[in-house]
Structure prediction request, 195 residues.
Amino acid sequence: MKNENKIDQEIYVTLRKIPGFEGHIKLDSNAKQKILTLEQEAGKKAVLGAIQAENQGVTNALNRQITYAIAYRPILFSTFKDKLDKSSVLMMSGKEILGEEISDPEKIIKLKARKDVMLLGSSFVLYKDKIRKAKEESKIVLPERTFPPLQQLANTKDNTSGSPSPPVDMFLKSKMNINTNDPDIGTVIVGLNLK
Prediction:
């Protein structure tokens, strides 16, 4: 417990140095269960008309020994966007990636030139051939991603994070006394294990 309190303090000190940090809370087992239930309900609702969603990032973060909800303004992620290790949104059929969000502008330019690729919006790429060949039902997957600002904390490992669904975002903001009507404030759930 003493080690966990020290980690809590290190996390707060680290986070408050990041531009865009608005607040955080440590999630207890009751809050984790409520979030898991809300995410499962949100995942059953159709996305893009008929596709279900699976929030692997949030689920995996909730399964860590210690879990935090962090409220932020967009500038927070721009400070370490180049260190993010995965796409934030995937469209999958089984283990096959049918589409993905791409944040690298140069990669988007190259993909735009391909005939087997379709761009949705400015950054979501669909792979037409893979969609035609898909054997299983497709779903939207929000994968887990490391949270770079907390990656180097002593005595922690298995750093992961996930972006919550809108109902969980509202739940977290209300727990943190953050204005739920401010569209510029988002939330992320970060989980860590102890070494």
Observations:
- The longest helix spans residues 29-44.
- Helices lie at 2-16, 29-44, 56-62, 75-78, 105-112, 128-133, 166-175.
